[in-house]
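Sample intake sheet
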Amino acid sequence: MLSRAFHTSNRWTNRTLPILLLLCFVIATALGLYALSFLRAMLVAERGNELAMNAAAVADTVDRVLFERYGDIQLFANDGVLREGTLKEKSARLLRYHQLYWYYSWLGITDATGQVVAATDDPSAPGAQAINPIAFEEVRRTGTIYLEKVSPSTEPQQQRAVGFMAPMYGPGGGFRGVVASRVPIENLRSIFEQEGRRRHGQDIYDWLLLTHDGVVLSEKQSSTGTFTAPTKLELPSQAHAIADRNQSGFVEEIHHRRGNSVVTGYASTRGYRDFPGFDWVVLFRQTHEQVYAPVDRLLWTVGGIGILVILPLTGFGIWVSWELGRERTELIKTRQDLEKSVAELGRSNADLQQFAYVASHDLQEPLRMVSSYTQLLAKRYRGQLDSDADEFIAFAVDGASRMQKLIQDLLAYSRVSTGNPQFEPTPMGAVLSYALDNLRNAVTESQAVITHDRLPTVTGDAKQLAQVFQNLLSNAIKFSGEQPPRIHISAQRNHDEWRFSVRDQGIGIDPQYAGRIFVIFQRLHTRAEYPGTGIGLAICKKIVERHGGRMWVESELGKGATFWFSIPDPSRDTSAARHKTDTARLD
């Protein structure tokens, strides 16, 4: 019996155990590589979305800038001096417009035959701008504005421009000629430089501006000194942008010049209001090496340390197993040690099961552990590693904190639908008082002046409606600008609903973003300017919609904002408890 046990133990120590140790090492290495690959994919997705947002912002700005030039040409065509003035007055007015609107490289007007009579350059000078006869005839025939697309095949890159041409008519309606302008593509580079900066740092992403057919109009690394033949590209990003002009996104592709792999965000210009636009494609790019850079060094450092620890342990385990095979006299002790190890493994498995239960029911606990231990690393090894390691650890702590806040906000957002299933009569005056109590410290610190009209009683969930008031008042205080906040809450009856408003005198909101601010995690400012996760208004909108109402905003930049929300009340019972108008200033 003892011999059989000995031979079994000998085979286990000499063959099976080394194989298992090697297998564990291979599995651990594979899991580490998988985690690295997964994290890199997340980084690509995050940076790709950022590139797509930059491309969409630039495309929208280009449309808006060219729409303004579209409006300028109409203004020029109706200028009485350009139509009726002397040649000297016309030239002076064109030079004045050229100074006011720096986007233009040339402005000129013609007579009824198409001859240039006044321009910002001398029409008789060598190389002076000539009027496109086809465009002139089209304007004279139709009486509409003509948009002259860029001609990359015939112009040096620094002279490639789009043209605007509009007809001029006399008092009797007679055709007097046209006014024309040219906007060089290179004058739009400032838009890419201003809008195309990276989220961290001042460097500008690599970018391209293409025509619908893939001809390069301008790019970040362009040579503007001499004539260069136009480059026509066929890129996956361009194909995606053309396939759906209303949708931005990102793809991974090969750089057209350097041949390395890049992440490319794309968007298309779509015109602006009644301006049809020029159908261009905007691309923003970053190499995979740049995308991975923020975490690669930390990952490889951690991975290297892990390998340096695991490899010696694995080798030591194999050596121990061979020693156990040769040391037959220690069989009994080895079995005892094995039984002890089995017991410890059982306790370890029990602990592991408990940990798995906690991890599956409390997503925030791992984040707290990551934050705690990275802070410990920062405290213990600060100054012993390089500055990049300290910075990466700080990034990890900040990321864990922000993820914890995001999870809490997501839970709050998801629990909106699980509120009190039975709506009850709710005095909105009492609801507002409850919200003000929760904001007492913020109101005191900001010296806010909050007033309200008499508020009605509606049918709803009092706790959730208090959350709506609290979020709206908190935002009004946060975005109040330099002056102490002045906020007024009112309510008015509109058919079978009550409409509540929260009006402030803060920094205001651009009307074009009025719908975007109610989307979850959508922000108009950076975290450095104003803290928060961008979910407060989304929660308000979801609560109001749960009550069968709707929410909207009326605002202009610098003129404050008024947030409205409606609560249905078909009973028209307005006799419930109200609060008289007063001023709630907490000193």
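Comment: The first helix runs from residue 2 to 77. The chain has 14 helices and 18 strands.
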